[in-house]
Inverse folding.
């Protein structure tokens, strides 16, 4: 899922002023320049990412998600035999759920608060191609990585899958 204009959703946490944008300049007739006071964060401000993440974090906690102690970009919600995991990368969310109804409910919950675009099933993320049902033996992968480092040869995934 992609959050549309994520940074524009977050309120700003300090008084911030910017020069008037091009095409929206109001002339005062004197030497003083007018500025605009921001009520929401903008892309490019240093605190925008932190404000957006704080807002999303608060919303997920409100909805009974628990932030991982190991990776703060991972949130988990468990109930009985069901589980939802949300991974956050800036304004992109990967959602994994134990069943389809839970997935729909989670997406609806997020859409109530944020304008979102559902990108469908995960096919690639951060340059990694995701293949449903593909399982890699971690010990064989680790052995392949060690061998590659020793030989400086490219890693061959054949036989690891």
């Amino acid at each position: 899922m992609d959050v549309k204009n994520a940074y524009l959703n977050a309120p700003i946490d300090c008084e911030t002023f910017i020069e008037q944008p091009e095409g929206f300049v109001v002339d005062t007739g004197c030497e003083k320049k007018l500025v605009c006071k921001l009520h929401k964060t903008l892309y490019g401000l240093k605190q925008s990412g932190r404000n957006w993440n704080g807002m999303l974090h608060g919303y997920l906690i409100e909805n009974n998600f628990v932030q991982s102690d190991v990776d703060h970009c991972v949130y988990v919600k468990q109930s009985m035999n069901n589980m939802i995991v949300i991974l956050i990368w800036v304004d992109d969310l990967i959602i994994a759920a134990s069943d389809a109804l839970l997935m729909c409910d989670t997406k609806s919950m997020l859409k109530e608060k944020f304008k979102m675009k559902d990108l469908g099933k995960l096919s690639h993320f951060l340059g990694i191609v995701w293949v449903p049902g593909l399982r890699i033996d971690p010990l064989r992968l680790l052995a392949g990585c060690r061998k590659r480092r020793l030989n400086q040869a490219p890693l061959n995934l054949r036989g690891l899958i």
Summary: The chain is about 30% helix and 20% strand. The first strand starts at residue 2 and ends at 3.
